[in-house]
Amino acid sequence: MAKIQVLPGKPLKPGIHVTKDGVNFSIFSRNAKVVYLELFHKADDSVPFMTIQLDSVYNRIGDIWFCFVEGVKPGDLYLYRVDGPYEPEKGHRFNKKFYLFDPRALAFTSGSVFKNMAFGQTCPLEKMPKCVIVDTDDYDWEDDRPLRTPLQDTIIYETHLKGFTASSTSKVKYSGTYRGLIEKIPYLKSLGITAVELLPIQEFDEYENGNVNPRTGERMVNYWGYSTIGFFAPKVNFAVDKKPGAVVTEFRDMVKALHKAGIELILDIVFNHTAEGNEHGVTLNFRGIDNSTFYALVPDNKRYYLNYSGCGNTVNCNHPINQEFIIDCLRYWVVEMHVDGFRFDLASVMCRAQDGSLIQYPPLTDRIAEDPLLRSAKIIAEPWDCGGAYYVGSFPGSRWCEWNDRYRDGIRRFIRGDEFMSNEAATRISGSSDLYAHSSRGPHHSINFIDSHDGFTLNDLVTYNSKHNEENGEGNRDGNDNNLSYNHGFEGPTSNPKIERLRHQQIKNFFTCLMLSQGVPMMVSGDEVNRTQNGNNNPYCQDNDISWFNWDDVEKHKDMLLFAQRVIALRRNHQVFRRRTYFGGSHTSSSVFQPDISWHDYDGKVPDWEKMNRFLGMRLGGNVGQGKEDSDFYIAFNTDIHDKTLVIPPPSSGRKWYRAVDTSIEGEGSALAAGKEEVLELQEKYVLPANSVLVLLSK
């Protein structure tokens, strides 16, 4: 290593700033008395080779502590220690014995992290990961640019980075890694999705979960990753090359490869809480650097943490310092890592003040929406939190999209066959105007989903009446009890062909509904091949076959995969399913009046919405605006247990109806390829079997 020389440095934005001569280090702490910068040669060093004490006179301006270290370079390692008052009742928890991560570290070394740590203990330094100095300019992006796929054209594929290729069935060279996902890009492209949404890949502690699987005796892990340590750092254990900083290159390689295939990358990001837990949690970075600034604390006793996340603490998101941290973090992932968008976990926490109260006009959500560097990034809110805040249809700030759980629940109940759900289903399928029109947002601001990582898979939704989380080590108490599922007569897998056939048909019904609804569809990895979690609806701790994509299912359920590909193609080929505005009764370009949408009962008549039950018929006119013409569509949902003879409304003049989808048909015929649709012999009537969906198009 070159000769090390410590210079005063500059009070730059917190984080590291690499130059040809060395690195400028900056860190925020308002209440610290002393800050120590610790330098290391290797990841497993048990002591630093140099400790630099930052002088409060020469190395501090305001709340920024800084120095320039000449002779250090990219790949070198560092941590901090911070000394100050230990006064929990005032919110201060400084302890100079604790080595701390830089909250803005760009990469970590691999290590055992915090396995078996207890409250008040420090991780043995030789096992503690170190922060890595990274030069973000040292990469060839090859003219990569954001894809900027319009929202209405977006189809999201939610998956877990590791779980997508971790199984030996994946047959990839680099299973469970960024490179492993690259190997599967041809599969993603063939499916037809436009965006991959990854569960958290910011650095997290896999070993924080102390539960034990009662069946195997194995200790559970934090598989999902909703417990962030390093918000700027891609998870090093998902990289093949464990050299310090190499993870940044591997992540960028993945983004670049996705973009070359026309696929965007959306990150699930967790600003509502951190991995440090409550007052009994561990000290990793924020708590030891300036606890009273970073966290929302109980106002009259700051020893305790407000907990709107369900995970022990709540980030004080609307504090100006934390606003700046979050904006800088998002900018980093967009500008330096070329990420296309974000899904914000429990985003309603970002609408809370320091005392936990809800703010009518939260400054943070507006800043995210209006930030000039983030304007092309997709921003998706999970618009609720664990404290009762619920903003579906009204998330504060412009241009926000939202996870629409009203869509999820309504469509689950409708396809399941619940009574008198046709009105609700019609509202959701047509874009949820009741939720979004009042705020001048369009159908594309609704992220439609039937399942997600959190809950049953689509297969399990039609296979289990109850959750089966016994292996999570929590006595099956965890997970949602209100799944709106139905096992169709037998709990779990069965050899009964009648039940299995009906289950597969229902999966196709759900999938067709999702892809042909107005709004942005989000599907879950593996739903296209009937992936199961064996009835576990909360596998946050299952880093194993319960959660992993089983690639044998691609061949086993190739008929379902083909169905999914063709229905996705149907959506992509027809703009009538991808509107930016709500239906309003517009005409086609012909002289004959044809509304853009009309509703029908099974007998072809205008429905009596109070009486229509377990059926929904809709005709979509081919006028999609701006002088563009598409096919007319007639879509019918028969969620009854009885077959129905339908009276079909006429297509536009000079056209005929062709069958594109009938989920009651087994095999390849249930969804026909573009251009291979079959003309109906009888244009006025169609017998639609029970529990099935019909899609006709005109040409």
Description:
By secondary structure, this protein is α/β, with parallel strands linked by helices. Helix content is 19%, strand content 19%. The chain has 14 helices and 31 strands. It is elongated, with a radius of gyration of 27 Å. The model has no long low-confidence stretch (mean pLDDT 95).
Provide a short characterization of the protein structure.
The chain has 699 residues and is an alpha/beta fold. The protein contains 14 helices and 31 strands.
What are its keywords?
alpha/beta; single chain; 14 helices; eight-stranded parallel β-barrel
Proportion of strand residues: 15-25%
Mind telling me the C-alpha Rg?
Answer: 27 Å
Helix content: 10-25%
The termini sit apart by 72 Å
The count of DSSP E runs of length 2 or more, i.e. the number of strands, is: 31
The general outline is elongated
The average pLDDT is 95
Largest sheet: 8 strands, parallel, barrel
The helix count comes to: 14
- Major sheet: arrangement of strands: 12-13-16-17-18-19-20-21
Class per helix and strand makeup: alpha/beta
Are there runs of 5+ residues with pLDDT below 50, and where? none
Layout: helices, strands, pairs:
Elements: E1 5-7, E2 15-18, E3 22-28, E4 34-40, E5 50-54, E6 60-61, E7 64-70, E8 77-83, E9 86-87, E10 92-93, E11 131-132, E12 156-159, H1 161-165, H2 178-183, H3 185-191, E13 195-198, E14 202-204, E15 228-234, H4 246-260, E16 264-269, H5 286-294, H6 320-336, E17 341-344, H7 363-370, E18 378-381, E19 401-404, H8 405-416, H9 422-429, H10 433-436, E20 446-448, H11 458-461, H12 497-515, E21 520-524, H13 552-556, H14 558-573, E22 597-600, E23 615-620, E24 623-625, E25 628-629, E26 633-638, E27 644-647, E28 657-662, E29 678-679, E30 685-688, E31 692-698
Helix pairs in contact: 8-9, 8-12, 12-14
